[in-house]
Design a protein that fits this description.
The structure is a homodimer. In chain A, strands 2, 3, 4, 5, 6, 7 and 8 form a 7-stranded antiparallel beta sheet that branches. The first copy, chain A, has 1 helix and 8 strands. Chain A is about 5% helix and about 45% strand. The model of chain A has no long low-confidence stretch (mean pLDDT about 95). β7 of chain A pairs antiparallel with β1 of chain B, so a sheet runs across the interface.
C-alpha cells in the first residue's frame, strides 16, 4: 500500500534489457526497464504487451514497419506479433503485460531472463 | 497499430473526472483523465486500479491514510478498498483497470459516467 516513484525505481537498475517488476494488478505486472542496443526478435502468443517510454527513445521494430516512441508515448504490441525493441541510446521504459509473459517469448537468447525480479 | 502520444490525447479532454480510453490490452483499459477538486468515495469490488500521475499532484484518500502522488508516481488501489481521489489543482493522470470496471464503482453520483469513450 505504498506509492511507487518511477525515478527512484529506475535508479536501482544497473543492467540493460532486464525488466524489474514494480507492481501487480489484475493478473498483470507493471515493469520498468533500461535498455540500449538491440533486443531479439520474439513474440508472445497469448499476451498483449504495452511499452511506455519514460525517458529517451525506443524503436519497436515490427516485421512490416517500425514504431518510434519518445517520452510519454505508448505502443501496445498485440499478442502474436513479432517485434524487436531497439534503442540506439539509453532509454527508460515502463512495461505492462500478464504475469505469465516470458521475457523473450519462446525465443531463448543471451538476453533472456527466466525469472524477473521485483525491485 | 499506431503509437499513442499522451500529451496529444490529453489535449482532447475538456472535462474533469471523465476518463477516456486510449488503449486496450489483456482485458484491461488504459485511460487518461484530467481532474480538479474531489471525486466521490467509492471502491471496485473485484478490480485493482492503477493511477499514474503525468502532470500535477493527486491525493488518493483512503479511509486510514492519504497517498499523495506527484508526476511519475504510481499507486495501485487494491480491489475492495474505498478511495477518493482529490486534486486541489488540475492534475493529468493515466489509469489502468479491467474493462468491466465502473467509473465510481457501485456508487452513483453526479460525477458518474456510465459509458466511457475512446479518445
Amino acid at each position: 500500500m505504498d506509492k511507487i516513484t518511477l525515478e527512484d525505481k529506475l535508479s536501482l537498475i544497473h543492467e540493460f534489457w532486464t525488466p524489474k517488476i514494480i507492481a501487480e494488478l489484475n493478473g498483470q505486472y507493471v515493469k520498468i526497464a533500461e535498455a540500449k542496443g538491440e533486443m531479439v526478435w520474439h513474440s508472445h502468443q497469448n499476451e498483449d504487451e504495452l511499452f511506455l517510454v519514460i525517458r529517451g527513445q525506443l524503436t519497436i521494430e515490427l516485421r512490416d514497419t517500425d514504431i518510434t516512441l519518445n517520452e510519454g508515448e505508448i505502443f501496445v504490441v498485440p499478442r502474436g506479433v513479432e517485434h524487436r525493441p531497439v534503442a540506439p541510446e539509453e532509454v527508460h521504459m515502463m512495461l505492462l503485460e500478464p504475469k505469465e509473459t516470458k521475457h523473450t517469448g519462446d525465443v531463448k537468447s543471451s538476453l533472456t531472463v527466466e525469472e524477473l525480479e521485483w525491485i
